[in-house]
Every structure is written in structure tokens, then in C-alpha cells.
Amino acid sequence: MCGIFGIIQDQLDPELVVKATRTIRHRGPNDEGYLLVSRDQTEVIACIGDDSQAELRLPHIQSFSSKRYHMAFGFRRLSILDLSINGHQPMCDKNENIWVILNGEVYNFVEIRQELIKAGYEFNSGSDTEVILNSYLEWGTDCFVKFTGMFAIAIFDRRKHSLILARDPFGIKPLYYSVTADKFAFASEIKSLVQIPWVPREANYSFVGKYLSFGISDIAPETAFNGIDALKPGCFLVVDLENVTNKQETVYWEITRDPEAAKLDYESATHRFRELFEESVRIHMRSDVPVGVSLSGGLDSSSILETIHHATDHTLGLHAFSFIADNPELCEEKWVDMVCHDTGTISHKTHITGDDFSELMDRMIYSLDEPFGGSSMFAQNQVFQLARQNNVTVLLDGQGSDELLGGYRDHMGDRLASVMLSGNPIETISMLSKMRAKGFSQLSKYFAWAIDRALPESVRPSTWMYNIKSMYPAVSDSWNSRLSGRVPHGFFRNKVQQYSSREILNEQLKYETFQAGLPALLRYEDRNSMAYSIESRVPFLTTSLAQFCLSLPESYKISTDCVSKRILRDAMSDRLPPPIKNRKDKIGFAPPEKEWMFQNSEKVKSIFKSGVGDTVPFFDRAKALSWFDNHLQTGKYDRRIWYTINLLLWTEKFNIHYPEIV
Length: 662
Description:
This protein is an alpha+beta fold. The protein folds into four domains: 2-175 and 231-251, Glutamine Phosphoribosylpyrophosphate, subunit 1, domain 1, CATH 3.60.20.10; 259-404 and 518-581, Rossmann fold, CATH 3.40.50; 410-514, no CATH class; 593-653, no CATH class. The chain has a seven-stranded antiparallel beta sheet with strand order 3-2-4-1-10-9-11. It has a six-stranded antiparallel beta sheet with strand order 5-6-7-8-12-13, covered by helices on one side. Strands 16-15-14-17-18 form a five-stranded parallel beta sheet, with helices on both faces. Residues 461-468 and 488-499 have low confidence and may be disordered.
């Protein structure tokens, strides 16, 4: 796991490259590397920085003050595989024609390395970066589809005068870029890009409208910043060094249906799921530094820990890190203790108080680069800090399981829609009855949800969608229609589009995995872990496992008995303690957000009253204060209060400008 930066512009100042790269030092405190390239490419100079090891015997970048360079790479290393100087980046081939920098890990590098050795390639390190380098030499851009992992890769191809950027199929690792008529830059984090004078610190109203209304974010390529895009997952981008506007984005991987998986009977599918999951956990354990588990006590993270214990060689001295809520209704400590006792795992726990929440706000706004969805990220942040305090550098996390296997309560509505579309009224009534028996409240909501998904697009009632204007309680009247217009017409229709099949749940899971939902959670995971120089790995998210899960019959994921993640529960039935296997509640790292916000009511009001509100043209301070006071008096809580606070703090922290709308 590392941080990468690159820039193409005439008269490039090396000091700017150093500044932008050191902004993301937290992503890689162990090493620092640079590459400077002249316009005619006759000069290609590898450099080191203050954090580099002296044994590298390369010139220091500060010895280059000339602005004659046209392209540069900056790199920060968090050493995970091959901790020696042999893993230093930027890394090149023996002819110095191909240069690579990597953020992330390619877990199947061992297998690909053996394939390349048979093809005649030699290796000087035990790193996955060298495998990427030789893979590109052997297969060109076709190499990306061979990688199982999380990665953002930049390649300078001197032969073709081009820059290639690639991102993993799920977007686990971030990669942002900005382009003008004659300049191009990319980075692992937006805070690095905005160090460049020509990159605007300007709000994107399309993002703002969706975020304030619904908390929606991270729909690539859009970001909160005008002029900054995210490279879409599963894509690579080729940029012409002579003309940066001449760039081409190509999809190298996208989810497809596996017809063989769809035909499997349940017993065979459960066996195959277990094989794929065990293999994923096994290769995710590859590391030359200590590995632990981010453990909530839920089904997903407990399954990872039990699989490590039963199916890998990493059984001694394993550490787990957990957030323990003070609120008894949200506390999962008994589940954490149960699985740690069962596996002999060393347990570490952290708590957060309302005072901690107040202190963490500013720090996390900066870490996450863009506004974010809720306070569970604070709990996650403290879990990673706890791991750093205990010198564990790699954590495995259960992210992605809910999206692949139907783990959220609202997925019951999607499953119900599929049952309704099957044309079996008895099965539909039976499922509704089971939902009631299992404690699902507001059955009318789920039934209406299911009807909406089951109806063709042409006859769906328009009333299912919120009136967008009503979603902006703290926005001035004159801006309501303007911001509403920035939410694309039909945006939420696309979420429940007329599906290509009658499997509403499967289509919804694909949407949440690759378009909206999981991408935001992966950003939070990346920034929170990297803030403490921790590599967070997500073994549920491999292309083979995702394709398998999303191709299975829906009943293998959610049964008509309303058992969610059915196949995971049964695949782990002989490993998980029965109380965890049979858990029906879902908490995760869930802090008491309402209590924290009300406990810090004076801080909330001070944010509303601060001068930053004057820089946000649509913010109505009086409305915001009245709105919040009403919630304090009634004891109710509205998540949009958090969205408003978050937006204001983000505006202040990143010095955001809001352009005029004509």
C-alpha cells in the first residue's frame, strides 16, 4: 500500500512534485521515490527524498532545481512485500523504458511470477510491483485483467511516449486525475492534487445536490471537486505525453454472469463458495509484516477470522481490533469475545465518547478528502489507529459481503419483488408473513418497495421518489430550484431501473457493488486506514468471488424464510460459533450518532454560525439553526444535519470556492 502522484506540464518545478507527494506521506512513511522526465525524454532521472534509504545511491530530488522537466512521478512507500531496497519505486525494466509505481497489492503475484519465469523473465525482488512491470512487458495492457488484488497503477512507457493509469475492478484503491488543454496530473488522494496551482478547489454542484439530499457520493468519475475526476473501477486510461487531451479510457473488466454458477444446486454452490472464499483469504494473508483482522463480531469479519484460523498457516499470535459502543443496544462486545475465544485471537478494543467525536471531526474531514455519509467512519478510524498503536500494519476487513450476498435489511424488499415477479402469490404471502414473524417493521414500506421494482418503468408511479426541494432544509429558497436542477433527471430512476432480468435482488446487488453504495465505503476504508499507514484488505472483493456470488440464484443469498447471506452462513456452519452463525441483527461499527450530535449541540451551532457559511452561497444560516433547534426540542434526529455540517467543514478545510450559477 502506498501513495502515488504524477504530473505532465511544461517547465515543471521539482519542488511542486515534492510538495504534492509529501502531502500523502501518511500513505507511505517507509520510503520516498521520484522520477523526472524531460520533454524529449533524453533525460529520465530516478531520484530519492528525505525518507529514502541511503543504500539506493540515487541523487536527491532537491539537487534538481531546473524547470526543464515535462513529466514526473512521486511515490510514497508503505513496505508490505520485500521490505528491502529492492522494492523501491519508481521501478523500471533493465532498459529503463518502462517505469511503474503502484498503490495497493496484487495478491496472485506469486502465481503470475512463476508464469513469467517460465517465459524467460528474471526477477530482482520479491515484490508484486516487479511482477506488474514484467507483466506489462509481456502482455501490455492485457495484464491488468490477470491481477487479483486492489491497485492503482501508473506506467510510463518511454517507447510509446505515453502514460497508462489503471484501477482495480472494484475501485478499492483510489486514483484521481485532473486535466487542462496542456496539463495533466494524477494522485492517490485529492489533497495531493489541489497542491497544484492550476487544479481548482471548486465545488461540484451536481455532487452537492445529491449529497445534501440523500448522502450519495462516490459515483465515478464524479467527485466533490469540479475539474477532478476519479478513474472508474475496472478501467485503464492511456494519455499521450505530447498531447494530454488525447487520452482514451478502456474498460478491461466488468461483471458478467457465470452460467455454470447459476446452474449449481445449493449444496454444490455452498462447497464452491467456501473454496473461493478460502482461497481469497489465503492469498490476502500474503505479507512480510504483521497481519490482523478488523473484527465487528458480525458474520462477515467473524467468517474471515475463522477461515484464517482453520484454513491457513497463520494461526499463532493473530490480533483482532474492534470498536465497542457504550450504548448497550449497539454493543457487540459479547460477539467479539466469543469469536476471539473460539480462535485464540488476541483482542484489542477501542471506545469513542462524544468528546472524542468532536475532536475527530476536523481530522477526518481532511483525511477523507470529500464529504462523507455518517459517524460510523469515526469508529472505523479509531480501529485503524488502535492497530497502528499495536504495530500491526495489515488488517483484513469484511467489506463487500453485504453487497454481494444481500446483507442489508432493505434487500428484503428486492428479494420480495423477485418473488412477486415469479407469479406465485402463495410464496409472496408466505414471505411477507415470515418477514413479520422475524421482526421486520413497516411491512407496507417493503411491499411498496417491491411493487416499485416489479413494475415496468413506463407504469411506475412517480410518487415513490422524494420531492427534491423538500430535501434541502438548510438551503435558501432562491437556490432550491438551482440545486435541484443539478440532480440529473431520472438519477434515482436508474437505481431501480427496468432490470434486464426478473431477478431484482441480483440486479440491485450489482448496482450497489459497482455503482452506488460500496464505492463510498471503500473510500472511507482507504482513507481511514491510510491515515495511520495501515493497509486494509477486503477478501470478499475478488473478481472470481463476486462473479460467482452475483450469478447464483437469489434464494441462495436470501431465502423465502428471510434468512440473509444464506450461503455464507451454511458455508461457515462448522466453523462459526452457532450464536454468530445465526445472528439476524446487523450493527457493524455503529456509534450513537444521534447522542453524539446532541451532546455536541453547541459545536454544531458554532459551525452553523461560523464565517464559512458566508462562503457557501446557498446556505441559509437562520434556517439551519431553526431546523437543528427543532430537532433538539423534539429529540428526533435527521442525518441531513450531519451532511450540512460535513459540507461546511469540508468547505473550510479545503478552502472551497462555489462558482456562480447563471
